[in-house]
Write a structure and sequence with these properties.
Blueprint lengths: L3 E4 L3 H11 L3 E4 L8 H8 L7 E4 L5 H14 L3 E5 L3 H10 L2 E5 L5 H13 L21 E6 L7 H15 L4 E6 L6 H5 L7 H5 L2 H4 L1 H7 L1 E2 L5 E3 L5 H5 L3 H14 L2 E6 L5 H9 L2 E7 L2 H16 L7 E8 L7 H8 L5 E4 L3 H8 L3 H4 L4 H13 L12 E3 L4 E3 L3
Parallel strand pairs: 1-2, 1-3, 3-4, 4-5, 6-10, 6-11, 7-9, 7-10, 11-12, 12-13
Antiparallel strand pairs: 8-9, 14-15
Helix pairs in contact: 1-5, 6-18, 12-13
């Protein structure tokens, strides 16, 4: 189970959590409820931060909400608030990132379900230093833009698989933005029906409040967050390049990876995304129009000073019958091809099903190349703390896991 931290001066609440969740976690009983992560760490005395925090502040509710904001924004630790004032504080709690509110005397099963929901939505995205610690400047996530000079080259297939592959390594670490504002089909490729789309997030409360923005995102079953393209051409027309810049900058402050699926060519939205981009992935197909288009796009990016050092070229639909070799492509574009994705009948099947190859765990040669692309973006290994103990502050002793 995911480790749980209980901040409470009530033995009843601590016992309730222990009955519902078992011994995986810590309990502390500070006189003053910690309103910041730094204050919380002082009480933990070296113990690692957990995945879920149960906040029982009593009459110190503002401090609990302030802590919930920091835990959610900087560490993506999910909070469960214990209070009998749910109707009164519900909206403020939601804005603070609290996942559930339970009463101090709720049934064990209700607490268990709240903790299970919180554990499902917890998990670090951007690993940020502790506020006040040395080097505590905000760590910006990496924006990975997938672009192509023309349509029909499999760009969205590459984007969705790349994003899913990154999210599978660290759930809720990645957000996929469909920046083909008029004709994007990321939602279809992932088989999702989102409540909100790009225009909703580019305007209104979500555009000004990072906490509100998070509530607008669609969470895919792989742990990937999604910003779908617009379903209305009129609404899409209202999204400006400035809106895109603001959105990507906000997302990069909250996620480790922001994968952007762009429209074909170099429109204003794509150029705005390129200004925010850390890694550029260029996709083309193995045909003369696609290769020529890629060469023109590379030349244009070089001319306008947007030629990123960190970039990859993906050559899609590789097959000997195409009459063009990789050497021909490399000679035309003046650089090497990084990934050669073969033509495969499995790709259109997965696209029609809305299940990306990497989500399905396919062993197809296409999946092998897509995994290599994911490796090139993120090769880091993550470790999860295990064997946490539950401290029973009421009896001043440590309860060992059974």
């Amino acid at each position: 189970m995911s480790p749980v931290l209980v901040i409470s001066r009530s033995p009843q609440v601590v016992g309730l959590v222990q009955q519902a969740w078992g011994p995986d976690g810590y309990a502390i009983a500070p006189e003053q409820f910690p309103g910041t992560v730094q204050a919380l760490l002082n009480h933990l005395q070296g113990a690692p931060l957990p995945a879920v925090a149960v906040l029982d502040p009593g009459d110190q509710l503002p401090a609990a909400l302030a802590l919930a904001v920091e835990l959610d924004q900087n560490f993506t630790i999910t909070s469960v608030l214990v209070t009998d004032r749910a109707a009164e504080v519900g909206l403020d709690a939601m804005r603070a990132g609290v996942r559930d509110i339970v009463a101090p005397n709720c049934p064990v099963e209700e607490m268990r379900k709240a903790l299970e929901r919180a554990a499902t939505h917890s998990g670090p995205r951007v690993q940020q230093p502790v506020p006040g610690a040395p080097g505590a400047a905000t760590q910006r996530g990496k924006v990975v833009t997938v672009a192509s000079p023309k349509g029909g080259v499999g760009k969205t297939t590459v984007s969705t698989n790349l994003a899913v592959g990154l999210a599978q390594r660290l759930p809720q670490s990645t957000v996929l933005v469909d920046l083909d504002v008029h004709f994007g089909d990321v939602a279809s490729a992932l088989n999702v029906t989102p409540e909100f789309t790009l225009p909703d997030m580019a305007h209104g409360p979500a555009s000004r409040d990072p906490l509100a923005l998070k509530s607008y995102l669609h969470l895919h079953q792989t742990g990937l967050y999604v910003v779908p393209g617009s379903e209305s051409p009129a609404a899409a027309d209202a999204v400006t390049s400035k809106d895109i810049t603001q959105l990507l900058d906000t997302l990069a402050q909250q996620f480790k990876y922001v994968v952007v699926d762009t429209a074909p060519g170099l429109g204003e939205h794509t150029l705005a995304a390129l200004d925010q981009t850390d890694v550029l992935v260029l996709v083309t197909s193995l045909d003369v129009p696609g290769v020529r288009g890629l060469r023109k796009e590379l030349d244009t990016l070089r001319d306008i000073g947007l030629m990123l050092e960190s970039r990859s070229v993906v050559l899609n639909f590789m097959h000997p019958s195409r009459g063009i070799s990789v050497a021909d492509v490399e000679a035309s574009i003046g650089r090497k091809v990084d990934f050669q994705v073969p033509q495969s009948n499995s790709v259109p099947i997965t696209v029609n099903q809305g299940i990306p190859l990497l989500q399905a765990g396919s062993r197809d040669p296409v999946a092998k190349q897509l995994k290599a692309l994911v490796d090139s973006i993120d090769s880091s290994e993550k470790a999860t703390p295990k064997g946490l103990r539950f401290l029973d502050f009421a009896h001043k002793k440590e309860v060992q896991p059974q």
